[in-house]
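Async update (no meeting this week)

Hi team, since we skipped the sync, here's where things stand on the single-chain job. The sequence we agreed to prioritize is pasted below, unchanged from the tracker. I ran it this morning and attached the output directly underneath so nobody has to dig for it. Comments welcome in thread, and please keep replies under the output.
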Amino acid sequence: MSFEESFISKKNFKKKSAVLRVDYNVPIENGVLLDDQKLLRSIPTIELILSQTDNLKILTHLGRPSENDPLTNEFSLAPVAKRLSELLRKEVKLVKSLDELKASKSLTMLENIRSFEGEKNSDEDFSKKLGQLGEIFVMDAFGTAHRKQASTYGIVNFINEACFGLLIEEEMDALEKIVLNPTKPLLGIIGGSKISTKINVIESLTNHCDWLIVGGALANTCYAAQGKNIGKSLFEPSYLDVAKKIIENPKIVIPTFVVVSNGSSIVEKSVNELSDEDIIFDVGQQSIEAFSQYIEEANTIVWNGPLGKFEEDEFSKGTEGIAEKIAESNAMTIIGGGETLAAFAKIEMMKSVDYASTGGGAFLEYIELGSLPCLELINQKNLGG
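Output:
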């Protein structure tokens, strides 16, 4: 399906009011943003709209506030509005009610959309109120494009026009290089903690990839399915049958050497030699060297999820080692997911990737399905569906 009719370039914003949904779910400490990448990535869309109209209303969420309790400082967008004002060199007014937002004719941001009752379950009445805020809806929150919520999905049914922002166009273009037209060989790398959350994408990636490296705690469940002793390592007992089927696929590659802690020391071991006290925390150096052959041969690499407990320096070397191998390769590299981006930023390897997706769940779901609910709905609207 072509999405071209839903691109922002097809819309005229002159003398119209626009509602923009962005993803500013960013880390904040003591009222200061620790990472403003998501804001920076949205600037081209904001500037394009502001070049045609001053009447722009911004919606975003931050964290997971309760819909029924008063908004606390922890979930307030005040620091976000302040930083966005600095980046745009233009005041971004922050308001607390839909009435204030509707009355505004200038650049305005609504307080945390997730604190409003009806947002999470895409309530029809709340979606209708959002649709009455403007004439054109611009969806540029890729990170939440897989969620059918009022400000991402429901609003589309109650507003005159809708389109994608420039960031979503970027995301789709990058991911289509994996889903539709990958330059082979294609190497996938999947990490993280739970195999249950990534079963579908693992199955989907094996259809697209030539090889798929499965690491992190996901691999622990695979070892257990093989009958190996994994000591006290994290795994999912109820997914052993699923893991067994996954590792039967000849495209799947799992580390054979891991870094373990047994309480008194941190050592690298073969997965066949673990003791009852060992806990797997990282992929071993010997496995990193073994993975080099796949990285060197690949023309495209897609990575989601760290391969170890990267937050702790002693267990970040696996993710760092693979990242360094990728930096030395000529493959086009696409990474996605908050933890993956955080891991690459921590080890200062962001420059080694060709594209960093702002989505986690959305990134994986797009690879799995080739589209997302919000994008489909907007496209149907533009195609007269």
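Quick observations from my side:
The domain at 4-164+371-382 is CATH 3.40.50.1260 (Rossmann fold).
The first strand starts at residue 18 and ends at 21.
Reply here if anything looks off.
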